[in-house]
Design the sequence.
């Protein structure tokens, strides 16, 4: 039977020759991960099982990134629960502050997410790892606890959707963030509900890994079970020197069944801005031009990688942030921060008037280091703009790529990069 790449990964991990959409399976896991918000809940449930050890201390990753560095006493207690658990169970991949990063930037960087892997994480943006050809999906803390104990999880095999991006003639400044916002604008936030979103075409092949991570990161914003891009030479180059073990190469069969196939010409996709209060409210940047803002955030698990910072610095070099704007920059990991320092990116951002932070999820979830007050507006390179997501319920978030965010920081209003270049 012909299968998609997502179906092949699930079948392989379930020990089956084939699976079909809708089938319930139990499958072995390659990686189980949690952060300081979801981890303590999972640990509490794990302890009820009465087992002495996690299934494999080398296949668990714990990353304090949401309210870390500790925001307050409660967040300190949350992190301590994870830290103690990691010590007691000799968890190899516990990343302390100073060595950690935003989990969905950090784990691929560390070579812990590989093609053909089956990964669950107690965070909805676990789907990011589909960029390397893994089946990765978010679960609740209870399912994660079971994964910690048994190394297995149950799945209903999702139907697959294929999205083909034709051509390589991208409009200037357009990248992965624009492609996925444009697609979510067409599908809606539930248009791929519990489905596997497979991204392909020469437009995807032309993108760097940083852009691919951005696309798969936001598959959940269309309601998907997972997002995935088949591995190619760029994937292999990214994994060289990172991968800690061998991995299988799985690809969709040419005659595999998809419940829906959609095609797009990348030359027709302009820079995107998603208006409040949903990622599906995607419009061209021209339609958002002139909207006054108070804050700009560049970073997160969506756009906190080196290419994102490099792009923002290219826009900001030799210019100044508008005097009425707060520009906050959050590199995804310490490694990204160091490389950005070596390239002079951090210096450029600070000279322009940005506040550069240690890696943290911080303002993305309205956690800390960038909360919005009543009536304030922000342009953000993060992934969600729901009511109250970054602060007061009467604040507003506009999602965009780093070039638009940087240009808007200079203008004090939503702006096209051409307006400041």
Sequence:
């Amino acid at each position: 039977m012909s299968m998609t790449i997502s179906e092949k990964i699930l079948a392989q991990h379930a020990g089956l020759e084939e699976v079909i959409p809708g089938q319930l399976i139990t499958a072995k896991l390659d990686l189980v991960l949690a952060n300081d918000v979801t981890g303590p809940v999972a640990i509490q449930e794990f302890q009820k099982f009465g087992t002495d050890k996690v299934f494999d201390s080398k296949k668990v990753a714990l990353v304090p990134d949401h309210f870390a560095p500790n925001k307050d006493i409660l967040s300190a207690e949350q992190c301590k629960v994870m830290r103690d658990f990691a010590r007691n169970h000799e968890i190899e991949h516990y990343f302390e502050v100073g060595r950690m990063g935003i989990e969905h930037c950090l784990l691929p960087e560390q070579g812990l997410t590989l093609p053909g892997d089956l990964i669950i994480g107690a965070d909805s943006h676990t789907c990011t790892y589909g960029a390397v050809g893994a089946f990765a999906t978010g679960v609740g803390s209870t399912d994660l606890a079971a994964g910690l104990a048994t190394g297995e999880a149950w799945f209903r095999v999702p139907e697959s959707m294929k999205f083909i991006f034709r051509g390589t003639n991208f409009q200037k400044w357009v990248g992965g963030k624009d492609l996925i916002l444009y697609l979510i604008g067409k599908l809606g936030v539930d248009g791929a509900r519990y489905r596997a979103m497979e991204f392909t075409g020469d437009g995807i092949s032309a993108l760097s890994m940083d852009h691919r991570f951005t696309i798969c990161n936001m598959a959940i914003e269309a309601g998907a079970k997972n997002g995935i891009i088949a591995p190619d030479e760029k994937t292999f180059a990214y994994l060289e020197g990172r991968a800690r073990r061998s991995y299988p190469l799985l690809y969709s069969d040419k005659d595999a069944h998809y419940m829906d196939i959609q095609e797009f010409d990348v030359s027709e996709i302009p820079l995107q801005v998603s208006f409040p209060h949903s990622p599906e409210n995607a419009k061209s940047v021209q339609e958002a031009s002139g909207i006054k803002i108070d804050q700009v955030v560049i970073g997160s698990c969506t756009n906190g990688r080196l290419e994102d910072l490099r792009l923002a610095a290219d826009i900001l070099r030799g210019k100044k942030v508008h005097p009425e704007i707060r520009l906050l920059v959050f590199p995804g990991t310490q490694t990204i921060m160091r490389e950005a320092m070596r390239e002079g990116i951090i210096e450029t951002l600070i000279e322009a008037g940005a506040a550069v932070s240690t890696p943290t999820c911080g303002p993305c979830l309205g956690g800390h280091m960038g909360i919005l007050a009543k009536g304030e507006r922000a342009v953000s390179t993060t992934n969600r703009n729901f009511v109250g997501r970054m602060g007061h319920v009467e604040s507003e978030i506009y999602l965009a790529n780093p070039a638009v965010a940087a240009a808007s920081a200079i203008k004090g209003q939503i702006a096209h990069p051409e307006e400041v270049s």
Q: What stands out?
A: The first strand starts at residue 24 and ends at 28. The chain has a mean pLDDT of 97. The CA atoms of residues 321 and 410 lie 4 Å apart.
